[in-house]
Amino acid sequence: MSRSVQVIVFVLAIVVVFFLALALRAHSLPPVSSGPAPDFTLQTFDGQSLTLSALRGQVVVVNFWASWCAPCREEAAFLEQTWRTYKDRGVVFIGVDYVDTDANARAYLKEFGITYPSGPDLGTTISQAYRIKGVPETYLISKEGIVSGNAIGPILRAGGAMSQAQFIARLESLLTAP
Amino acid sequence: MQDKIIRIGGVVGVLIAALLIVSPMAAQGPSLENEVNRIAKTLYCPVCPNTPLDVCTTKACEDWRAEIRQLLQEGKNEQQIREYFLARYGPQVLGAPPAEGFNWLAYLFPFLLIGVGALVAWFTLQQWSRRRRADVTPPETPEIPREYAERIRKELEER
């Protein structure tokens, strides 16, 4: 093989390896746990449009859920109760419904009496931006729009990805932060 | 007697009406299910990768198949259903990634590989054929120094 062909093959091999490495890296990155929260706009089930960046100055809790997800059911009541407790203290809860049918999602919201805004993650763009690994996952976002913790799994009374007490403590610390 | 006739007429009427309602449904049933399965075969479960919707046994997949059925009943065609699933559940529902951005690499790579392979094969064949030609070419006559050539020529003339 002539030298020029050898060079072409070598360069192409390098390019392919580079792109494969990029693709693998994108797949293996962990969920967002710090830094600026990826911005998104959510069309809620009750027809409102909600943009994360418009909520600066408030502590935001973003919860990814789905009606077919059993662990989501274990934390649903707690999230609703916490939202009701904190909504007048500058905390916003947002439910992001991950790959779900409309009818099932609405039935789930009704079943658990969820009143905080929730909407479908159309095209899974929000879950891709947060690099979620599954549902449920919950992200705590500071008043400055910085991701200040996450729970990769359900928030349970004890155990789970984060205990309910830890979640409340984290929320309180974000509220009292200057 | 008249009451009896009216009653029998009513029962017959109800039976005819039921038949009229049931027969198109029965006719639609299997063909609709075939259509649901055909489309489900081309779509993948968005949460259990590499599992086509037609063979996926989870409750969520059942719901997605029901959604395909509902969309078909609303008059949507296969392309519209695929677009709906893509818009709602993301690119992971398609068997192949959409041809855009970084995904182009997946489509171009096989052709690139074939191109490089052809190039390598062509150059290798050329090299072989050059080597072969070199093998069959008779060795060149060694150059004879001028004085020897002159001497040979003279000797030949003298004979």
Rounded mean pLDDT score of chain A: 92
From the structure provided, what is the oligomeric state, counting identical versus distinct chains? heterodimer
Find the count of extended strands of chain B (DSSP E, 2+ residues): 0
Uncertain ranges of chain A = none
Q: Count of helices of chain B?
A: 5
- Compute the average pLDDT of chain B: 82
The CATH architecture name of the largest domain in chain B reads Orthogonal Bundle
Q: N-to-C terminal Cα separation of chain B, in Å?
A: 150 Å
Radius of gyration of chain A: 20 Å
Q: Largest sheet of chain B at a glance?
A: none
> What structural category do the secondary elements of chain B indicate?
mainly alpha
In CATH's first tier, which class of the largest domain in chain B applies? Mainly Alpha
Q: What's the CATH topology label of the largest domain in chain A?
A: Glutaredoxin
The helix content of chain B is: over 70%
Trace the largest sheet of chain A across and list its strands. Answer: 5-4-3-6-7
* Overall number of domains of chain A: 2
Any low-confidence stretches of chain B, pLDDT <50, length ≥5? Answer: 22-27
The helical percent of chain A reads 25-40%
Radius of gyration of chain B: 40 Å
Structural notes for this entry:
The complex is a heterodimer of chains A (178) and B (159). Chain A folds into 2 domains: 1-29; 31-176, Glutaredoxin (3-Layer(aba) Sandwich), CATH 3.40.30. Chain A is built from 5 helices and 9 strands; from the N terminus they run αβββαβαβαββββα. Chain A has helices at 3-28, 70-86, 102-111, 125-129, 164-176; strands at 41-43, 49-51, 59-65, 91-97, 118-120, 137-141, 147-152, 155-156, 162-163. The longest helix of chain A has 26 residues, at 3-28. With 178 residues, chain A is an alpha/beta fold. In chain A, the strands form 3 sheets. Chain A has a 5-stranded mixed β-sheet with strand order 5-4-3-6-7, covered by helices on one side. A two-stranded antiparallel ribbon of chain A has the order 1-2. Chain A has a two-stranded parallel ribbon with strand order 8-9. By secondary structure, chain B is mainly alpha-helical. Chain B has 2 domains: 1-95, Cytochrome C biogenesis protein (Helicase, Ruva Protein, domain 3); 99-159, no CATH class. Chain B is 72% helix and 0% strand. Chain B has 5 helices and no strands. Chain B is rod-shaped. Residues 22-27 of chain B have low confidence and may be disordered. At the A-B interface, helix 1 of A face helix 2, helix 3 and helix 4 of B.
